[in-house]
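Why run this: before we spend reagent on co-expression, it is cheaper to look at a predicted model of the complex and decide which construct boundaries make sense. The entries below are exactly what would go into the expression plan.
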Amino acid sequence: MSGEKFCGIYLYHIGNGNSDGVNTRELRTYAESLPGVGFVWDSREYPVMDAARLLTDIRKNNIQKVILAGNSPGFAKSFFTKVMLSAGNKAKDVSLVSFSEFNVLGREDISRAKALILCAVKDVPFEMVAVPEEVPVHPDTLVIGGGIAGIQAALELADAGNKVFLLEKSGTIGGHMAMFDKTFPTLDCAACILTPKMVEVGQHVNIELITCSELKSVSGQAGNFRVKILKKARYVSLSTCIGCGTCSTKCPVKVPSEFDAGTTMRKAIFIPFPQAVPNKYLIDPVNCTYIRDQKCGVCAKVCPVEGCINYEENDEEIEIQVGNIIVATGFRLFDARRDDRFGYGKFPSVLTSLEFERLVNAGGPTGGEIRQPVVDKKGNRVFTLDGKEPQRLALIHCIGSRDVNFNRYCSRVCCMYSLKLAHLVREKLPEAEVYEYFIDMRAFGKGYEEFYRRIQHEGVHIIRGRTAKVEEKNGRLLLRTEDILNDDLIEQEVDMVILAAGLEAREDARELGKMLGIATGEEGWFLEANSNTDPVNTYSGGISIAGVCQGPKDIPDTVAQASAAAARVIQSIITGKTRASLSEVSLESIEVNIRQYQ
Amino acid sequence: MEYKPTILAFLCNWCSYTGADLAGTSRLKYVPNVRVIRVMCSGRVETTFVLKAFREGADAVLICGCHPGDCHYHEGNYKCLRRYLLLQKYIQQMGIHPDRLRLEWVSASEGNIFARLIDEMTETVAKLGPCEVRKTMETIM
Amino acid sequence: MEDKRIGVYICWCGTNIALMVDVEKVTREMAKIPDVVISRDYKYMCSDPGQDLIIKDIKENNLTRIVVASCSPRMHELTFRKALKKAGLNPYYFEMANIREQDSWVHTDRHEATKKAEALILAAINRVRYHEALDSRKVEIDPATLIIGGGITGITAALEIAGSGEKVYLIEQSDKLGGLAAGLDLTFPYLYSAVQMLRTLVRKVNTDPDIKIFLNSQVEEIKGYIGNFEAQISSAEGKETKLKFGNIIVATGLKTFDPSGMENYGYGKFPDVITSTEFEKMLQDGLIQKKNGTEPENIAIIHCVGSRNKNYHEYCSRICCSTALKFANQVRSQLPKANIFELYADMRAFGKGCEEFYASTSRKNIKFLMFDQENELPRVMESEKSDRCDMLIELNEKLSGKAVLVPADLIILMVGLEARQDVKHVAHATGLSICGNQFYIEKHPKLDPVATTTYGVFIAGACQAPKDIPESVSQAKAAAARILSTIARGSVEVEATTSCVNEEICCGCQTCIRICPYSAISFLEDKKVSFVNEILCKGCGTCGSGCPTGAIKCKHFTDVQIFSEIEGLLNMSYSMEEIKEA
Amino acid sequence: MKERIDPRFYVGLEEFGIKTAEWNECFHCGNCTAICPLTEKGVLFPRKEIRLMQMGLKKELHACTEPWLCYYCGDCSKTCPRDANPAELMMSLRRYLTSVYDWTGLARKIYTSKIWEYMLIFMLAAIVLVLYLKFTFYPAAEGQWIGADGGVLINKIAPWHRIHIGDWLMAGFLAFLLISNIFNMWYKVILSDKSVKIPFPAYITQFFSLVWNFFTQQKFNKCDDSKIYWYLHLFLMLSYVSLFTIIVFFLKWFQTDIIHPFWHPQRLIGYIATTGLFSGIFYFIFNRFNKSRQNSKYSHITDWTFLVLLFLTTATGISLHIFRISGMPVATYYTYVIHLMCLVPMLTIEVPFSKWSHLAYRPFAVYFANLKKSAIILPKRDS
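The model came back. C-alpha cells follow.
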C-alpha cells in the first residue's frame, strides 16, 4: 500500500490570501516528526523553484512521494510531477494538500492543517477519517432570508412535512426577485412565477413566517440551536388587518418605496407591494410622525377594524429551538455612487438596473411606460408620465464588478439582465435606439447564448468596450467609450443611462457569519464546506447556505442550491441525527480513525 | 374588409401547446384568427373532432404534436399521423380541400415555428376562401 | 343534473392582458351568457386577494363551476384548482382560458384580440358545464431510488439519498464511476486535485451499504409510475436484473464534442493538435509533451471548439473558459519559459473565484488573442522550417484588428459539451422530453430546474445543460432533496385525468389494449371487456380516440367536453347575438 | 502579408520600466482610451500600445507616435479595472522609443545600464577638464589673475571665442545626432508605414503645428487638471531653451568682464531663466520624492539623473555668477570648469540619447501624427 511510501513535503508559506495566518514553522516541525517523512522543504528557503536542487534533494533522501501543502498548491503541481518523473517516480506520487479547500483560514485551524498533512502522508482521504460525532436533531428548521432561495428551501422542507421558521427582515417575502419585471432568458414575468410560491409559503401549514424580524443571537450546537429573534413591531395586527388600504390613502407621510427601488413614494403606513405575503399593512416607525413625535394618528382613526392599528406595540424578542439553520440572506446591489465617473446621483437620467426594472414594470411608477425622470421643485428625482420618452438609451456593464477599484469578482448576472432590459426597451419603445457597452458577454446558461443572439438581431447596438465616463452635454448624457472591435472612439449622446450594477455581500454578512460560526471570504460571501463537492454546507454543523449569499448566482442556480441545502436537513430529520461541526474534529480523533481505517 | 379564415388548432399539451405559450412569452406576433384547443396528446384527436370543427364552421383545422420520437406518450403522435392520413382522404370525398386540414410537428422550443406556421396557413386558407360545410349542412337540414 | 352556476373571472395581469384585450367589455359580454352567475375582472387573479375573491364568491353565491381567463393553464391551473379546493369545490369544476400567452401577447390588433378572448372564454364556459368531479389518488412510494449515470452528479445524489438510509441503485454505462470528472487532473479555479476528490467520493460510494452499483450496465425499459417503477437492467455480460424503485434521477451527463469534423483545426491531421480531454490525460500522466516526446515551446489553447457557432452548437458549453485558464496555469508551472496563447471569444470566467483566477492567470504572461467564434474561426496551418515552430495558426485578432500568425507546437482544442448518443433512448425509457439542443427539459427553467413533467423522474447535472462541478453537485443534492421528501411523506398524489371503460358499450375488440403505450389496459376475460389500470394510465387519451364504440371515456377530455369547446370557439367567429338566440 | 506574433518581444525591455506582469493583465475594456482627455477619433491610445506590446508587433510599435502624445495625467492608471497601469507603460515606451530612434545604440545602453550612464558622464567630464586646461585656463602665461580694477577677467581665463568653438563643436555634434535620430523616427513612423502615403504639400502645411506645439505644449495643457504643473514645465523648458541659445550663439554678449547693473537685460534674462530652471527642478524633484502625483509614482533612474545634472549645472552656474560679481577670481575660475563639467555631460547625455530628447520628439510626434491624419483625409477630398 502506497501509504508506506517515503514522503517529502513541500510547505508553502504564502498562500494566496487568507491562510497566511497558519504558522508554517509549527507545521514544519510537526511534519518532520511524522514517520515516513524524509524531507520537508519550506517555501521560504526555496523562494524560486529550482528543479535541479529539488531533484538532488529527492534523490538524496530517496523520496518516493511528494506532498505539496499550502493554500492552493495545485499551481505548482505540474512543475513537481515533471521533477518526480525525472526522479523516476510516477506523476500520481505528487499529492496535494490544499488548505483553503478544507477551510484552513488561520491560526485556529492549525490542527486541521496538521491532520490534512497526516492524512496525505498516510494516503487516507481526509473526509473519510475527519467525521464529526453524530448528535440528535430537533425536527424544526430555521431559514434566514425570505428571497427566492429562502422560499424554495422552506417549501422543500415544509412539503417533506417538517416545521419551518422563515425569518425575513422586511415586511414581506419575495426578496429581489419580486422586484424584477421579467426573467431571462424565457422572459416570463418574475411576479407571475414567484407570487404563486409566495402564496404557497403564506398558506403552508408547516411554515411559520416571521417578517420584520432579525436574528439576535444563536446558542447551542448542531441539532439543537436556541435562536433569539428580535420581532420588530408592525403596529398593525397581522390577524385583524383586512388589507383595505384606507389607512395608507389617508397617511400624510411620503417616503421613497424600497420595493420600487425609490422610483415611487410610499406612505409611512404601507404594504410593500400588491402581492406581498403576508398581504398586510405595516408602519415604518422611522417615518411615522405619530410614533416619532405623537403627531397625526390619522390611520388609527380611519381604520375600519377596531384596535387593528396599535401605536403602543413594542418590539418583542422571541426564542425558538431548531435543529438546522439554512442561511439565504442574498445580496445588496452595488452602490453606483461609489464609481462617480458614471454620474449616478448627479444626473437624474442615470438609473441603476434595479430602478429600471421597476420603471419598466407594469406595477412601477409609470405603469410600465419608459419615461425620463423629472426633477421637482425640491430637487428630488421623480418618475412620472410627464417625463420625456427617451429616444436613446445606453446600458453600461460591469459597474462595480471586475474592477480592482471596487469588486474584483464577476457578478455573473449583469450581462444577461442587461440583454433582457435592452429587449424590454426595444419592445416598449420600438423606435428607441439601445446601446450596450460590455467587456465580455457572459451568456453561459441554458438558452442564454441563444437569447444573446436574438437580442443582437433585434437591432440593439451591442458594443465591446466599457464606457469610461458619463457627462452632461446640452441636456443629454454624453458617453465616452472605445469601440474596441472597430478601433474607434464613440462619443454617444443618450437620454437615459442604465448602470448594470453588480452584486455585493450584505453589509451585515460578516456579523451574521460570526453569530453562526460560518466563515466569510474576502468579499463577504459565505464560505462553503467544499467549493467542489459541498457548495451548500458549512464547517459549522447543522448550518447550510443557499443562494447568492454564497456568491453571485442566477435564479435557476439559486433555486437548485436552495433545494440542495434542504437535502441535508431532510436527511438529518429522517435519520434523526446530524453531524456536529467539522471545525471541532480533533487531531487525536482523526489519528485514531486513521489507525482503524488502515 | 378582407376575409379572415378561422383556424381551429388541436395542440398537444407537452410540445405544441408549450411551444405556442413560448411564442407568447417571447412576444412573437401572429395573426389572431386561430382558436386553440388543448389535448394531452395529439393521439387524443379523434376524427369526429375534426369533422365537428368543419361542421361548426371552421375554415381549416390544424393538429400539432411532438416531433416524431419525442412524444411524451411514446407514440401518440404516430397514431395521430395515421388518423390524419385517413382523414385527408375522407374530407376530400366530402369536398373539403385537403389544404384545410394540416398536421404539423411543433416542439416546446419552437415558438417561432408555431407563429410562422399560423401566419402561413392563414394565407393559404384565405386563398381558398370560406369553407362551405356549415352553410350546406344548414341548407340540407 | 344539478344546475350550473358559473363564475367567470378575467385577469388584467397588470397590463399584460389589459393592454391588448378590453377586459371590461369582455367581462360585460360574458355576464350575458346563460348560466353565468358572476363575471368579474381583477388586476391579478393569481394574487392572494384574487384567489380570495373566487373563494368568497363560491361560498356566497354557491357557484358550481369556475372559469378563469388569464395566463396559460401550465402556469396557474394548479393555483386555482387549489383555490376551488379551499372553497370546498371539486378542483376539476374549473376551466382556464389562456388569453395571455396565446392572445394578448401574440396579437397587435386590440379589437381582434378582444374578440378572440371572448371566443376562448365562451369555449371555456361551454366546456366547464360538462366538467365532472374527479379526485386524485394517493400512491405509496417505494423508498428505493434508481440513479442513471455514475458521474459526479450521480455519485453525489446517491450518497445524499443513501445517507438517510434509503436504498439506491446506481447504474453506470462504463466500467468505472466518475464520468467526465474522472478525466480531470485539477479543478478550477483553486486548482484542487480532482483525482483525490473523486477517489474519496468513489470510496464513499463503494463502502456505503445502501448503494448498489451496476457497472457496464444499461436501463432497458422502465415500467410503472411514480412510487412504483420497475426496470430491466442489462449488463455488458448480458446479465439481466429486475429492479423495483419509487423515484428516478437521470444524471447521464454529456460527452465532449468531437472536432474531427472541423477541418480548420486539422485535428487528426496534425499529431500535436489535441483535445482538452487528451490534454487532461497528459496532465494526469504528468508530462506536457509533443507526440515525439519533446517539450513544446509554443502552446496554443483554442476556446469555443464546437460551441457558440451555429454550424456546430449554438449554446455556450460553460466550463471551457475556466478550464482553459487552468491549463494555462499548469503549463506555465511546468514550462516557465514556454509561450502560451489563449485564443478566445469572450472570457466567460463567471464562477466564484473565477474572475480573480482570470486576472492572476493573465499576470503570468499568457497571450490572450480574441477571434470571432461565429464567422471567422482560426485556421491551423503547416509551417516552414524558417518559422522555428511546428504549426502556425492564422487568425483575425479582434482586439488589435490585425490578421496575424501564431506559432504553435502544441494546440489544445477546448472541446465543448454535447448530448450523448443514447439521450433519446434514456428519454424514452424514462418519459422525458428533449429540447432543441438535445438536453432534457426541466419542469420549469427557473423555479424547478431538477423536476420534470413526469412524476417521480428528476434530472440533475449536465444532462439538463452544461454545468461545472459545484453546479452539478447542487442539482444532484436538489434532486435528492425532492426524493427524500417524497420518501419522508411515504406517498404522493397522482393525476386524476385518466381513461376508464364503459363496460356497457365495450365490444371487447381490444383495439385500446394494442394502442396503449403503457400497457395500462388489460382484457377482463370473464366480462369480455377492457379494463384500465388508472395508476398506470398517464391520461394521453389515445385509447379514447381509438375506441370504435366510444366506450372509453378520457376523463376531463371527454368527447362532449371537447365538442362543446369547439362550438364555443367557432360560434364566436360569427357574433355574440346568434348564440344568445340559440 | 500576415504578421507573426512575437511572444518574446518583451524580453529585455523591463529595464526601460516596462513591467510585463502589469500590462499583461489588461483585458481590453477600453477604459483607458476613453478616459484619456487627449484621445480623439483616429488618435487612440494607450490600449493600442498595450495590445501591440502583448502581441509583440515590433514594427507597428516603432511606428507609434502616441506615446509622445501622452502627457501622463495618469487618469487611465487611476481608473484601470485591472491594475494594468497604462500610463506608466506609455512613459516606459517613450524611453524605449528614444532608444529605438537612436541609431548609435548609446541610448539603449544609457537606459538599460547604470554603469554605462555614469561611465559616460564621468568620461565626458574628464574630457571637458582636459580640454579646458589645454586650450584655456592659462593664468601663468599672462600672469594676469585679476583685472586692473580688481575685477574678474573671465574672458582672459576662458575667452568667449574659444569657448564658443567648444560650444559650436558640441552643438553641432549634438544637433547632428538629434536630427539624424529625428530622421530615423521619421523613417520608422512614416516611411515604413506602408498604409499611408504622405503628399509633400502636407509637410509644409502641417509644419506650423510643429513650431506651435514646441513652444506652447498646448496638448499638455489640455491633459492635466493642475495648471501649475503645465506652467512650471513650460517655464522650465523656455528658460532652458533661452539660456541654451544665449550661451551657444551670444556668449560674447553674455560672458563679459565688466559687471552690468542689475536691470541690464543680460543679468535680468539670466536671473529669470535661472528662476525658471530652479523652480521647475525643485517642483519635479519634490514630486518624485513624495510620489504625490500619478506621474511621479514610478521613477526610472534616468529621470533622476536628468534632474540631478540639471540641478548641478544650474547650481554651479549660479555660484559662478555670485563669485564673479563678488569679485572672487579663483573661485570663479574653478567653478567655471566645474560648471562646464556638469553642463557638457548633461547636454551630451540628455539631448540626443535620453530624457531631454522628448523636447524634440514630442512636437515632431504631433507633426508626424498630423501628417498621417492629413494623408488619410486628402484622398477622401478627391473622391
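Chains D and B do not touch (no CB pair under 8 Å). The radius of gyration of chain D is 23 Å. Bring this page to Monday's planning discussion.
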